[in-house]
Amino acid sequence: MMIPAKRRSFLQSAAALALAGGGLPLAFAAGKIKPGERAALIVVDVQNCFVPGGTLPVAKGDEVVPVINRIATAFENVVVTQDWHTPGHASFASTHAGKKPFETTKLSYGQQVLWPDHCVRGTDDAALHKDLKLPQAQLILRKGFHEHVDSYSAFEEADRKTSTGLAGYLKQRGIKTVFVTGLATDFCVAWTALDAKRLGFETYVVEDACRAIDLNGSLEAAWKQMKAKGVQRIQSEDIALT
Ligand code: VGL
Ligand code: ZN
């Protein structure tokens, strides 16, 4: 049977559309983000010190663990960070005579919030949370190990001069996009995300995979700054898990 030319071209384009539709990942159809081989999950400071029972506990900090474990299955590339301080670190209130935790002081590079002694290198307090399940993690990056300089960011120390090398590592491995999770939203997560964006990575923060310290409005300020700089705020359910 002859099919009229007009009808034939309709059938052909319908078939092409069906093919394209069928070829799309389900996740895309559902409007979710699918991390590809050029994306990395960054898991910030999910350590004993930052969960209840630790030396600088973040409220409900342990709740990020199952969320991170779940989304991590969607990632080929995972980087884990550890806050890793010397004894007598410059960020510890106990290092500064007359200072109490959560006060601030002026250090050579600027204002520094002073914290309880926490995440001292090699202690159990500084160990990663035992329930993290990240067998595919490729890099564990320690930061804050210089006695006189803090490092909230996984990319650059608080002097804003000393690099951790993470941007070079990610770039040399072809990573273009990072998804930041962990503790605490308003300190190490926010600083890491802001640096990632500034250094040229497309940057997402997965809000429910983070918990905050929230010191004097720091959480709201952090989200405001991240929004202004183009860091994207998403939820774990926005990530396609297949
Ligand atoms: C952090 C305060 C001090 C963090 C680390 O991981 O957010 N906060 N050190
Ligand atoms: Zn610290």
UniProtKB/TrEMBL annotation:
Which superkingdom does the taxonomy of this entry point to? Bacteria
Task: Report the leader peptide range.
Answer: 1-29
Q: Which GO terms describe its molecular function?
A: metal ion binding; nicotinamidase activity
Entry annotated with the keyword Metal-binding: yes
Cross-referenced PANTHER family? LD05707P, PYRAZINAMIDASE/NICOTINAMIDASE
Query: What is stated as this protein's family in its record?
Result: Belongs to the isochorismatase family.
Q: What name does UniProt use for this protein?
A: Nicotinamidase
In which organism is this protein found? Acidovorax soli
